[in-house]
Write a structure and sequence with these properties.
This protein is α/β, with parallel strands linked by helices and 576 residues long. The protein has two domains: 414 residues, Rossmann fold, CATH 3.40.50.12780; 138 residues, ANL, C-terminal domain (GMP Synthetase, Chain A, domain 3). The protein contains 16 helices and 25 strands. The strands form five sheets. It has a nine-stranded mixed β-sheet, sandwiched between helices. Strands 7-6-5-3-4-8-9 form a seven-stranded mixed β-sheet, sandwiched between helices. A hairpin with a 3-residue loop joins β23 and β24. α1 packs antiparallel against α2, α1 runs parallel beside α8 and α7 crosses α8. The relative contact order is 0.08. Bound molecules: adenosine monophosphate. The site of adenosine monophosphate has 21 residues, from β14, β19 and β20. Pfam families: AMP-binding, AMP-binding_C. Keywords: Ligase. This is Fatty-acyl-CoA synthase. One of its GO terms (molecular function) is ligase activity, forming carbon-sulfur bonds. Belongs to the ATP-dependent AMP-binding enzyme family.
């Protein structure tokens, strides 16, 4: 066989530093605005950001950090954190963003597992660092992201970021690194077992930034002012710190205050046009805006993901505030973007309800990601919008293996099993119905806990809801709603249960509802269903009691009403 004819184009490595270099050269005057921990607003340009990132690279090299070594961060969304994104990776070290909301023992475990050489931290986390330092003997130094006058009193001996930078001149040329070398490290926020590390490459980060910027993805451009509410310690703020310099978008970084009022005021003051965050933060923003009777004057769209966006939230943004919601799905192992919900031309001509139904799903993959759903036998399942299966993905920004778990690849036939359960419809729109471990199996059929939660939060008196499986003698598991009422709102258990009627198949109707003051969340704002299931492990459903009193009497089985006639028979499937 003859040798292939090779193309004759430049082999320019895709490196993270090229993003900030591009922004500094071609969008040099575009702004980066940060609400600082110090309490004021900091404003500078991409041009200034690059110089300081280079000073940081020089400072870290002066501290003998070698390419390939990890430098951790414990920081909010701010300009110094952004400088670390480029300064650490630019000379070949690995920027390891650590989630400060985790328990200190978990953080210590992660820092030790990553083997971080230095850790940069916002002064908000001074006490945390004092607790961590004795547990992390391999960290050579802790660097406070402040100047000398803001140095917090601490037990740990720390270095001062501004002093380190001031000692460098910023006269440094980014080296041409191997694009397959590691650039960033993020750990999953796993609720079971130890967290797992996803080690991104320069190439995967740049390709992901291209993908994220596409018009039918985040659609970022130089005409945007983008405010990532999603933290820079959570999967690189979904790639926005990379996509913003790629496109030249103005970047607005909100710091530590993520309450509705603070976010709203910053968005208005800085003319923010695009944003991104998890549903929980938008709950706070919408509640504030409703209470204050205010509207957005510049915000056009927001990406909502990380957990399912309740349709009621989507409608409120669109109908009450004329803000387009783009529902997105992804995960740490995917850098994180996988799918986003945007209609194509033909879909946008359909009746409003049909359009709405599509937009409520998690959407279509971006070029760079492929997906499929598989059954228990590993065979691919049809894209009919009804059959649900395990979701598998692949692509150049999906992990091949976990960091320091060299022995076992998680891949199955070259695909990464996400642990999510989903349907895909004939339009190619993904609908996540559950995490596989959260799925409710009633009489052998799956009930989507996410769908039931979405209905619960559409009730005007409900602020937040979780749906978990509860043991049932006949059906094995039945759904229980655990809900938090809105402040001052009144609703009874029966009223809430009645609210589900007519909205789902009868056998999906929750068996019971209980009210709690608050629900447990993970450090990234996801519902901690494992904890809830533990709490309600010995909870006895009224339907289970009835069952015990009179086994196999369908009349007593509220859940099964109209569903089955005889024991052992399966409930009707979702499609019926
Ligand atoms: P993380 O790695 O912390 O970003 O978590 C990823 C997981 O969050 C996914 O595997 C899903 O279970 C969940 N997730 C992310 N986005 C969504 C979404 N839009 N709807 C439902 N679940 C989501």
């Amino acid at each position: 066989m003859s040798a292939p004819l090779l193309g004759q184009m430049m082999d320019v490595p895709l490196t993270v530093s090229s993003l900030i270099e591009h922004a500094a050269r071609h969008h040099g005057s575009a702004q980066i605005v940060s609400r600082r921990i110090e309490g004021d607003i900091h404003r500078y340009t991409y041009r200034e950001c690059e110089v300081r990132a280079k000073q940081l690279a020089q400072a870290l090299m002066a501290l003998n950090v070698a390419p390939g070594e990890r430098v951790g961060t414990l920081a909010w969304n701010g300009y110094r954190h952004l400088e670390a994104y480029f300064g650490v990776t630019g000379f070949g070290a690995v920027c390891h963003t650590v989630n400060p909301r985790l328990f200190p023992e978990q953080i210590a475990w992660i820092v030790n597992h990553a083997d971080d050489r230095y850790v940069l931290f916002d002064v908000t986390f001074a006490a945390l660092v004092d607790a961590l330092a004795p547990q992390c003997p391999n960290v050579r130094g802790w660097i406070a992201l402040c100047d000398e006058s803001h140095r917090p009193p601490m037990r740990t001996e720390v270095l001062c970021y501004e002093t380190l930078l001031a000692a460098q001149d910023g006269n440094y040329a980014w080296p041409a690194l191997d694009e397959r070398s590691a650039s960033n490290l993020c750990y999953t926020s796993g609720t079971t077992g130890n967290p797992k590390g996803a080690l991104y490459t320069h190439r995967s980060s740049v390709l992901h930034a291209y993908g994220a910027s596409l018009p039918d993805a985040m659609g970022l451009s130089a005409r945007d002012a983008v405010l990532p509410v999603v933290p820079m310690f959570h999967v690189n703020a979904w790639g926005i710190p990379h996509a913003a310099p790629l496109t030249g978008a103005k970047l607005v970084l909100p710091g530590k205050d993520l309450d509705g009022k603070s976010l709203y005021e910053l968005m208005e003051a800085e003319g923010v046009t695009a944003s991104a965050g998890v549903p929980t933060v938008w709950l706070g923003l919408l509640a504030y805006m409703r209470g204050a009777g205010v509207h957005f004057s510049t915000l056009k769209r927001t990406v909502i993901g990380g957990s399912a966006c309740p349709p009621a939230m989507l409608r409120s943004f669109e109908d009450d505030y004329a803000v387009q919601v783009v529902h997105a799905w992804g995960m740490t192992e995917m850098s994180p973007l996988g799918t986003l919900s945007r209609l194509n031309w033909e879909q946008s001509q359909r009746p409003r309800e049909a359009r709405q139904a599509l937009l409520e799903k998690q959407g279509r993959v971006i070029f760079g990601v492929d997906m499929k759903i598989v059954g228990d036998d590993g065979g691919e399942l049809p894209w009919d919008g009804a059959t649900s299966g395990d979701l598998h993905v692949r692509g150049p920004w999906v992990i091949d293996r976990y960091y320091r778990q060299e022995s076992g690849s998680p891949l199955v036939d070259g695909w990464f099993p996400t642990g999510d359960v989903a349907t895909i419809d004939p339009d190619g729109f993904l609908h996540i119905t559950d995490r596989s471990k959260d799925v409710i199996k009633s009489g052998g059929e799956w009930i989507s806990s996410i769908d039931l939660e979405n209905i619960a939060v559409a009730h005007p008196a409900i602020a937040e809801a979780a749906c978990i499986a509860c043991a049932h003698p006949r059906w094995t598991e039945r759904p229980l709603i655990v809900a938090v009422k809105k402040p001052g709102a009144a609703v009874t258990r029966d009223e809430l249960l009645t609210f589900f009627e007519g909205k789902v198949a009868k056998w999906w109707l929750p068996d019971d509802a209980v009210f709690v003051d608050e629900l447990p969340h993970t450090a990234t704002g996801k519902l901690q269903k494992l904890k809830l299931r533990e709490r309600f492990r010995s909870y006895v459903l009224p339907t289970a009691l009835a069952e015990a009193a009179c086994p196999f009497d369908p009349a007593q089985d509220a859940a099964g009403a109209g569903n089955v006639a005889s024991p052992g028979e399966k409930p009707l499937s979702m499609r019926d």
